[in-house]
């Protein structure tokens, strides 16, 4: 089974979530509202939602790892396609190199997403480590300088599921965060608007212990490119609340606490002996605590609508209502078009790699009142949003 197989308010960044100060529309933000794609252009926030910071469309479509349904993830090719499709926001996951540069990878283990195993000069870097309690064998970014990493090429993570994406294997390098910031600046100039990014710190406690703290580097680069302000077209996200707390001391860009499945515990809680689980954090008291230092949450979709024993969508929880009551927006993750990722009631046929009824699933999730969604398939998400907005 390939990795990534998983059973799995309408106002984006509502005024309540960010306060009146954050509602001021900058020139760039107003331009964002206009969008560039047909679907996005018609999907601007309605009158009831005009408090959305910068007027981002609602629900916002966040290109998960770019357009990872169609291109090897976290490559400039993937980011470009997501932006060209009209995604409102483009996501990066960040890990460090040995010499402290930030690169865009979903994890520090680059075995599955680069051609590192084909490089005999790096054969002796293969090693076994425990990352956030999980034992892994492979090649890790923190054992490579940036110059060394730049000799590698990115490849498709799940070639069995997304065979077509393998066409692009070897085409792109592993991008640095700074290269992405420069790309976003170039694209913004071309389009007459700023490009929104959604940046995640990966394994921040693990890396800090290695002397490779992420947050200071993220803040430094955001400041260099003018993305550190509360009205910057920039979200910050982490599964570790302490990483968001650290970032909040360094920059003012809106931040999001990611929440995995209800039984899980953030890794920084595990290390600190904090017994709280995600189930605790999505209770009103937990949400109030998060709202003390973040503007949003990014829950696993199962936190919004749990799946039944047979993998179908169950009854929505009160998390959307409770988070909004706490002044938090919601950017849940991750919608993917393939049957293997969809709830059982939206699968079509028996081929796990074939597309199921993604539009049907998007509709159910949008109906819960979420403010945005991460999707590997931004184009599908945009059409689903257009359908949704037509009816609301
Ligand atoms: O960051 C939102 C979503 O990407 C979280 O899951 O594991 O894909 O980074 P992951
Ligand atoms: Ca992520």
TrEMBL record:
The keyword Signal applies. Keywords: Glycerol metabolism, Hydrolase, Signal. Residues 59-385 form the GP-PDE domain. It comes from the Bacteria. Belongs to the glycerophosphoryl diester phosphodiesterase family. It comes from Streptomyces coffeae. Its EC number is 3.1.4.46. This is glycerophosphodiester phosphodiesterase. Residues 1-33 form the signal peptide. It catalyses: a sn-glycero-3-phosphodiester + H2O = an alcohol + sn-glycerol 3-phosphate + H(+). The keyword Cell inner membrane does not apply. Pfam families: GDPD.
């Amino acid at each position: 089974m390939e990795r990534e197989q998983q059973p799995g308010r309408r106002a984006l960044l509502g005024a309540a979530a960010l306060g009146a100060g954050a509602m001021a529309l900058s020139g760039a933000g107003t331009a964002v509202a206009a969008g560039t794609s047909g679907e996005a252009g018609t999907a601007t926030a309605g009158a009831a939602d005009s408090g959305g910071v910068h007027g981002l469309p609602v629900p916002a479509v966040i290109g998960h790892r770019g357009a990872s349904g169609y291109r090897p993830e976290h490559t400039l090719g993937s980011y470009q396609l997501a932006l060209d499709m009209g995604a409102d926001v483009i996501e990066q996951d960040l890990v460090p190199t040995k010499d402290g540069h930030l690169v865009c990878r979903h994890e520090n283990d680059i075995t599955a997403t680069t051609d590192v195993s084909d490089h005999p000069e790096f054969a002796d870097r293969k090693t076994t480590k425990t990352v956030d309690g999980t034992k892994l064998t492979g090649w890790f970014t923190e054992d490579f300088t940036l110059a060394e990493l730049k000799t590698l090429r990115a490849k498709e993570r799940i070639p069995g599921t997304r065979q077509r994406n393998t066409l692009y294997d070897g085409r792109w390098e592993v991008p640095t965060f700074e290269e992405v910031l420069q790309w976003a600046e170039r694209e913004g100039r071309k389009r007459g608007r700023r490009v929104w990014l959604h940046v995640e710190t990966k394994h921040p406690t693990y890396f800090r212990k290695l002397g490779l703290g992420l947050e200071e580097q993220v803040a430094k680069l955001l400041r260099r490119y003018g993305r550190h302000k509360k009205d910057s077209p920039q979200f910050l996200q982490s599964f570790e609340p302490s990483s968001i707390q650290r970032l909040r001391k360094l920059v003012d860009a809106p931040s999001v606490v990611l929440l995995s499945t209800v039984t899980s515990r953030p890794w920084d809680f595990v290390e600190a002996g904090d017994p709280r689980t995600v189930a605790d954090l999505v209770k009103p008291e937990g949400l109030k605590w998060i709202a003390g230092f973040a503007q949003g949450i990014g829950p696993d979709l199962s936190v919004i609508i749990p799946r039944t024993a047979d993998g179908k969508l169950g009854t929505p929880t009160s998390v959307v209502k409770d988070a909004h009551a706490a002044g938090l927006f919601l950017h849940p993750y991750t919608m993917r078009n393939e049957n293997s990722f969809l709830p059982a009631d939206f699968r079509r046929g028996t081929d796990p790699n074939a597309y199921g009824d993604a539009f049907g699933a998007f509709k159910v999730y949008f109906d819960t009142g979420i403010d945005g969604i991460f999707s590997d398939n931004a184009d599908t998400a945009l059409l689903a949003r257009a359908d949704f907005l037509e009816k609301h």
